[in-house]
Every structure is written in structure tokens, then in C-alpha cells.
């Protein structure tokens, strides 16, 4: 069995979990607090970042997009019409662009800042950076949410799925990132009806069930988090 070192409030970790589940791959989940700089974890990934997949023969594969490539080559290529990557090079390029948007741009501008202020800093020791939330950082990240949600709303309204005609890694990346924000009640879904309809379809996929069961110590999810129809 594979092993995934993850954190429930990490977009990249959720992305890897969704892909594993979409491809029917069982993996042991080990929650990692990367700020502790645990020696055993740093031996797997000297960068100290999440997620890390311990693959066949205990080979560590670090990084959400690298894990996705590995799973696509070892599992996805065998799934035919259930593969999360389109056939044509131009469609693949679009999916990869969107993955980079949601795991890169959205994470840099919104997700990781809100997760850090509302979750991680409350779990950290003072010497590791633990402190009360920074209201200035939260306000800046929340201002950026509107821009990203407008884009998701446009994609959802103009395409069958975010990356094109079929579910793809783009949908997994977006759902992973937005589910972190949704857990904390940071998204005003009524303002983005097309995005909400797309997200409801994503929440209804079997691969999403484990994410909806996530709970973080000291922070309960918003009431609608587990609802498939909200």
C-alpha cells in the first residue's frame, strides 16, 4: 500500500488524495505538521513541504503536481475514458495551466494565507511561528477570493467541466483548493451560482467523501460543508 504524508488544510494534499481516490488507489494517510521539521519527514523531502507520496519500493515522491504525474503515468494511462488528462496536446496544456492556477496562483494569493492564519498558527509553538491570526493578512487574502471565484464562475458557466468536456486534473486542483476555503466558510457561494453548481457535482463524486469527513482540531467546518446540495 502507498503512503501519503498530508495535511487536511493543504490544497496540494487534497489534490493528491482526490487523484488517488479517482484512480481507485488505496493509500495510508499520515497527517504531517511540516512546521515541526520532523527528521523522519525531512529525510523523505528535504524541502519539508507537503504532500509526499511514499510509492512502490518506498520511493518518496514530493510535490502535488509531481505526484499527479506519477499517478497519471502509473495508473491514469490505464483508465482510458476515466483518465483525468485529455487526449489532445492543446487540451492537456489547458488542464495543466489551470492546475498551476489553482495550486499556484490561488494558493499563493489566498488559500495558504488563510489556512496559515486560521489553522496552522494556532497549532504551532511560539518558536515555530505560532501566534494569533494576522488580520491584515486575512483581509488581503479575502479580498483576492472574489477575483478567483469570478474566474471559476466563468469557467463553470462556459464549459462542461473546468478544463473542458470531461473531468480532469483541473477540476481536482480547483476542488481541492476551494474545499479548504469552504471548510472555513470563506466562500460566498450564492454570489457564484455556476461555480456552486460545479462544486456540488464535485462534492457528489465518491472521491470527495474522505475530504468531507475531514475535521481539524480547534476548527469545526461550516454547517453546509458536508452537504451535497447546499
UniProtKB/TrEMBL annotation:
It holds the Pfam family GST_C_2. Residues 88-222 form the GST C-terminal domain. Keywords: Transferase. One of its GO terms (biological process) is glutathione metabolic process. It comes from the Bacteria. Residues 1-79 form the GST N-terminal domain. GO terms for molecular function: glutathione transferase activity. InterPro entries: Glutathione-S-Trfase_C-like (IPR010987), Glutathione-S-Trfase_C_sf (IPR036282), Glutathione_S-Trfase (IPR040079), Glutathione_S-Trfase_N (IPR004045), Thioredoxin-like_sf (IPR036249). PANTHER family: GLUTATHIONE S TRANSFERASE D10, ISOFORM A-RELATED. Homodimer. This is Glutathione S-transferase. It comes from Phyllobacterium leguminum. The lineage of its organism: Bacteria, Pseudomonadati, Pseudomonadota, Alphaproteobacteria, Hyphomicrobiales.
